[in-house]
């Protein structure tokens, strides 16, 4: 059924009528964070090749954009990406419900609500991290989304990504109250970016670095609410750290480390789910059909190669690899042969070192 045909029924859907669904417990063990301008469909297709079992997240898309914008672009997704979540921004329950239904119609496996973004634009729109102060409104939004997508033939779970609090609000009971209120509305999974968001005085970038991380709060949440799926996010930079979190929570979500060092994703996938490590160049060559299909659609090569620049992070030849791609991808007619040249610029293959 085309997504547009489902909008009216989403608007009139009754309050939640079936038990909330949850994402499957295996894929949530490892996930790649939603990142604006980064985790577009090209990025996710690449990450999927590296981490066949991980859960992937889209960039945040505002509910209004989903409803009124260029859906073919905003909700572009390749079938290889599953399981993949659509992250929505917004706070108006009816719009969120409508957008969630459209997202589910496009095949996304989860609808995630952003309650963690601190940008000024987002604050002005009364969504993102400032929603941590409005648990009742978030609960209403979640209930409306579940009513819209939880009862589909293929029910789609509705999840929330949040912070610990905002500004200098370090009150465990308030954080716990937020989670309890939203869980009562049917949300079974919380991705906890384990630091506060400071709504005044810090840029979004600083807001990912300056407020101190408090993993203990996310772990405590899992201890006190073992019935909920709790995913830890924030500052996880190595395989060992990610694996250690799994003793305390249901999953580890990596953002910047996965993007800047995508081979870490591959190592994590193998460590958590088994299989043999594969060389970087073999993994990258699997991207060729996607690259060629996108080029045929008119997508410039640089839109795709920007996501693979970190593949040889801290490896011999890594700099040359990046240089060949960065310099060549802007040239008219750039095609797959550039990627082969970048691979050739790395050191000759020596088993997994390649
Ligand atoms: C470039 C960039 C864009 C981001 N965009 C989003 C977003 O759209 N939605 C969201 O919930 N978080 C967003 N984040 C935050 C990440 O999802 C994640 O919570 C944060 O980077 C902390 O995880 P990390 O330390 O593993 O990177 C973004 C982060 C970065 C670096």
Automatic annotation (TrEMBL):
Entries under InterPro entries matching the protein: Aldolase_TIM, DUS-like_FMN-bd, DUS_fam, DusA, tRNA_hU_synthase_CS
Enzyme class: oxidoreductase
Matching PROSITE patterns: UPF0034
CDD domains referenced in this protein's UniProt entry, alphabetically: DUS_like_FMN
Cofactor(s) recorded in Swiss-Prot or TrEMBL: FMN
EC identifiers of the protein: 1.3.1.91
Catalyzed chemical reaction(s): 5,6-dihydrouridine(20) in tRNA + NAD(+) = uridine(20) in tRNA + NADH + H(+); 5,6-dihydrouridine(20) in tRNA + NADP(+) = uridine(20) in tRNA + NADPH + H(+); 5,6-dihydrouridine(20a) in tRNA + NAD(+) = uridine(20a) in tRNA + NADH + H(+); 5,6-dihydrouridine(20a) in tRNA + NADP(+) = uridine(20a) in tRNA + NADPH + H(+)
Entries under Pfam families matching the protein: Dus (PF01207)
UniProt KW keywords: Flavoprotein, FMN, NADP, Nucleotide-binding, Oxidoreductase, RNA-binding, tRNA processing, tRNA-binding
Site, Interacts with tRNA: residue positions: 114, 205, 208, 319, 322
Composition-biased stretches (Low complexity): 8-24
SUPFAM superfamilies linked to this entry: FMN-linked oxidoreductases
Annotated spans, Disordered: 1-24
Role description: Catalyzes the synthesis of 5,6-dihydrouridine (D), a modified base found in the D-loop of most tRNAs, via the reduction of the C5-C6 double bond in target uridines. Specifically modifies U20 and U20a in tRNAs.
PANTHER family xrefs: FMN-LINKED OXIDOREDUCTASES SUPERFAMILY PROTEIN (PTHR42907:SF1)
Family statement: Belongs to the Dus family. DusA subfamily. Belongs to the dus family.
Entry protein name: tRNA-dihydrouridine(20/20a) synthase
Organism field: Luteimonas viscosa
């Amino acid at each position: 059924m085309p997504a547009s045909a489902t909008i009216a029924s989403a608007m009139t859907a009754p309050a939640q009528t079936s038990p909330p669904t949850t994402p499957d417990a295996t894929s949530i063990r490892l996930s790649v964070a939603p990142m604006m301008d980064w985790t577009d469909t090209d990025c996710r297709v690449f990450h999927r090749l590296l981490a066949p079992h991980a859960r992937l997240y889209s960039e945040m898309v505002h509910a209004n954009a989903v409803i009124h914008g260029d859906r073919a672009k905003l909700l572009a997704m390749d079938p290889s990406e599953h399981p993949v979540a659509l992250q929505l921004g917004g706070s108006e329950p009816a719009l969120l419900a409508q957008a969630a239904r459209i997202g589910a119609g496009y095949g996304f496996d989860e609808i995630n609500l952003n309650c963690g973004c601190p940008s000024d634009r987002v604050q002005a729109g009364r969504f993102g991290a400032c929603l941590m102060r409005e648990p009742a409104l978030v609960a209403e939004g979640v209930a409306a989304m579940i009513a819209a997508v939880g009862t589909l033939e293929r029910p789609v779970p509705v999840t929330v990504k949040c912070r610990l609090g905002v500004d200098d609000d370090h009150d465990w009971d308030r954080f716990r109250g937020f989670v309890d209120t939203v869980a009562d509305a049917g949300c079974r999974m919380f991705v906890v970016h384990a630091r506060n968001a400071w709504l005044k005085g810090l840029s979004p970038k600083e807001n990912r670095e300056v407020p101190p991380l408090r993993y203990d709060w996310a772990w405590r949440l899992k201890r006190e609410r073992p019935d909920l799926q709790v995913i830890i996010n924030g500052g996880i930079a190595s395989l060992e750290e990610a694996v250690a979190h799994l003793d305390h929570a249901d999953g580890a979500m990596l953002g910047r480390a996965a993007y800047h060092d995508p081979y870490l994703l591959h190592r994590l996938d193998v460590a958590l789910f088994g299989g043999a490590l594969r060389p970087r160049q073999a993994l990258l060559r699997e991207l060729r059909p996607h690259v060629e299909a996108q080029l045929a659609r008119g997508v410039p090569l640089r839109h795709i190669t920007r996501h693979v620049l970190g593949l040889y992070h801290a490896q011999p030849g890594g700099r040359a690899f990046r240089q060949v791609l960065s310099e060549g991808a802007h040239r008219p007619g750039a095609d797959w042969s550039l990627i082969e040249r970048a691979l050739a610029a790395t050191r000759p293959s020596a088993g997994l070192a390649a």
